[in-house]
Amino acid sequence: MSKIEKIRGDAIKALFKELQQDRIPLTARLMDGDYEHVTYIIDIHKFKKTPFFLIESQESFQKAADNLDVLRLYFEFIGNDRIKYVFETADSEAWQDRIWIRFPESVLRFQRRRLFRLDAPPGTRLYFNVNDMRYKLLVVNVSLGGTLGVLVSLTKKMEQELKAINPKIIENVELVFPSKGHNDDPKVNIKTCHVARQGRNRLTHKYEYAMEFKELAEEEQKKLTALFYQWQREYLRKRRLFKV
Q1: Alpha carbons 92 and 101: distance in angstroms, whole number
Q2: Alpha-carbon gap, residue 121 to 91, rounded angstroms
Q3: What is the C-alpha separation between 35 and 64, in angstroms, rounded?
Q4: How far apart are CA 232 and CA 237, in angstroms?
Q5: The pTM is what?
Q6: What is the average per-residue pLDDT within 202-226?
Q7: Judging by beta carbons within 10 Å of its beta carbon (0-12, 13-18, 19+), is residue 107 exposed, middle or buried?
Q8: Burial degree of 225 (CB within 10 A; 0-12, 13-18, 19+)
Q9: What pLDDT score was predicted for residue 44?
Q10: What span, in angstroms and rounded, lies between the C-alpha atoms of 92 and 204?
């Protein structure tokens, strides 16, 4: 089992300021209703010496909250340290037509462990270059920290070259998710990846790449997080539908 650390007091204030300054996305869920969305902390304020925070909310969220006697919320997010945090709060204050949420008594921080991996949506690809050669992977699974993919095409010459070069760090990687409409496929640019493993799978005989994301620009990290949570919600919804 993973270890869980409780964050309290001034440490919560420092953590929430980081969430606000870095615009780290949070998943917010009404505990007494069927509503969930990705949001951000946009302000922090004290009312009668009690700290509150304000989230970026949608009109649909406001309507759902108005129907509740007590606003009980569950939040979770991945911090800059790529570790999962969760907290709950059940106290709020209405001020200037905005809902301010009271700081929780504690925030749970999950100790570093293997990040949750999700089967990649069909059609997810990853592209990178080695010695001016363009490679394409079909992504098998993905997490907020890395991915596993299978090379689409690989000649013996290309395989020999990859084994000879065996780069541990690959730069300018493109992770492309399939679009749900007529828009361009969502793309996440990753500055550097660490190759944790590469080689033939003994069972499938396919050439696999396991990569760890090492460096992403802030906007790209936010994009990846939002896309990942979107697919995660759909995955969990389908699992509930097919559960006997």
Answers
A1: 4
A2: 38
A3: 7
A4: 8
A5: 0.54
A6: 87
A7: buried
A8: buried
A9: 94
A10: 54
